[in-house]
């Protein structure tokens, strides 16, 4: 009998709730600072920004300050609690979102730049109705820890992929070829996802049994989200740039079970690539999948539901800052997760054998 991975009659109900909540703007919605995500005080130097980022940009321009280049190749994540850590990346973010010394008009927003109703975001509020700074800081700390965990896991994946992969792209010819790829890389994928999970404080608060349930349940989904960044696919081929293999998409049936799974993931991966999600958005989407409260056998369902709601709001906030129409893109991301969940329900039991489950158990313990 196949394992049941979800404990509700409608396992998509929670995600639908998140998506529905994102379509409307409750009273008290805020315009966010395009630089750090704090509450914007007005339209400054060409964009909506907070007082802190307005002042930072003004000082930098007026004093002609040059900041020491950042050692982080991909740049630092600029948020309210981290915006003062790296002035170089903060200035780059100011410029990238459109701040300019030529846009000297402060506080007045041209009609064409006025935000649509779905561009407002409700920051956490305390009992007096003011922005709850403690809650905001806690959420940003969660985002930073998840982003750091994701970067560490990707670094580990890249290292192992480099060690195991051939120097040139190999075209798979048969079911046996696909099985060899599967056996070679699945333990690596399990290890990397476990690395990601164990770097998140909320994951470590769970029992070992629940940790194993969550990691096992999210394997295919997290792998697909991560793989979308380095999978090239067209009508003719499915090519993994990191793992160095290629499949002929016109002959999925020749590759056995793995070909069948890739065939069903084809559209999902294509959509994720089209969304052009940032690293922090990918990390939050992976965390939402990891902490799914619908996995069968979980005991801390309420805690996971609250965490999932925090993650969904954090993701929506990032999408809003980075893509403008964050509400619609958030809904599309949720729909993609639902599609991935359908694939997991159908194939996860077939893909995981006792050897892989043993490796997973050992890596979490």
From TrEMBL:
Source species, please?
Answer: Lottia gigantea (Giant owl limpet)
Indicate the transmembrane segments per the record: none
Any GO BP: cell differentiation
A Gene Ontology molecular function term of the record: nuclear receptor activity
Q: GO CC terms on record?
A: nucleus
Q: Which UniProt keywords apply?
A: DNA-binding, Metal-binding, Nucleus, Receptor, Transcription, Transcription regulation, Zinc, Zinc-finger
Ranges where the NR LBD domain occurs: 138-365
Q: Where in the cell is it found?
A: Nucleus
Instruction: Say which family it is in.
Output: Belongs to the nuclear hormone receptor family. NR1 subfamily.
Q: Name one Pfam family in it.
A: zf-C4
Where is the Nuclear receptor domain positioned along the sequence? 30-106
Domain of life of the source: Eukaryota
Q: Which InterPro entries match?
A: NHR-like_dom_sf, Nucl_hrmn_rcpt_lig-bd, Nuclear_hormone_rcpt_NR1, Nuclear_hrmn_rcpt, ThyrH_rcpt, Znf_hrmn_rcpt, Znf_NHR/GATA
Q: In terms of one coarse class, where is the protein primarily found?
A: nucleus
What is the name listed in the Swiss-Prot or TrEMBL entry for this protein? Nuclear receptor domain-containing protein
């Amino acid at each position: 009998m196949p394992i049941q991975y979800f404990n509700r009659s409608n396992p998509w109900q929670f995600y639908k709730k998140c998506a529905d909540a994102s379509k409307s703007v409750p009273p008290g919605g805020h315009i966010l600072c395009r630089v750090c995500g704090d509450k914007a005080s007005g339209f400054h130097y060409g964009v909506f920004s907070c007082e802190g980022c307005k002042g930072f940009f003004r000082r930098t321009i007026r004093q002609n300050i040059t900041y020491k280049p950042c050692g982080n190749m991909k740049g630092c994540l600029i948020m309210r609690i981290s915006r003062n850590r790296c002035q170089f990346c903060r200035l780059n973010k100011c410029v990238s979102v459109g701040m300019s010394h030529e846009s000297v008009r402060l506080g007045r927003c041209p009609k064409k730049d006025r935000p649509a109703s779905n561009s407002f975001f409700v920051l956490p509020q305390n009992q007096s109705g003011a922005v709850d700074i403690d809650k905001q800081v806690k959420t940003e700390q969660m985002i930073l820890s998840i982003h750091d965990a994701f970067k560490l896991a990707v670094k580990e994946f890249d290292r192992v992929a480099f060690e195991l992969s051939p120097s040139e792209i190999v075209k798979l010819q048969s079911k046996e070829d696909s099985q060899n790829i599967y056996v070679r890389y699945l333990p690596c994928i399990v290890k990397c996802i476990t690395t990601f999970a164990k770097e998140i404080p909320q994951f470590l608060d769970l029992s070992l049994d629940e940790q194993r349930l969550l990691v096992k349940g999210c394997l295919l989904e997290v792998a697909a989200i991560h793989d979308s960044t380095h999978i090239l696919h067209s009508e003719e081929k499915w090519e993994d740039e990191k793992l160095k293999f290629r499949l002929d998409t016109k002959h999925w049936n020749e590759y056995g079970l793995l070909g069948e799974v890739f065939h069903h993931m084809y559209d999902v991966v294509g959509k994720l690539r089209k969304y052009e999600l940032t690293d922090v958005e990918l990390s939050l989407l992976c965390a939402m999948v990891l902490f799914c409260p619908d996995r069968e056998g979980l005991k801390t369902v309420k805690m996971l539901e609250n965490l999932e709601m925090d993650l969904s709001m954090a993701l929506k906030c990032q999408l809003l800052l980075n893509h403008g129409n964050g509400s619609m893109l958030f809904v599309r991301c949720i729909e993609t997760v639902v599609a991935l969940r359908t694939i997991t329900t159908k194939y996860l039991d077939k893909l995981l054998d006792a050897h892989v489950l043993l490796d997973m158990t050992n890596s979490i313990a």
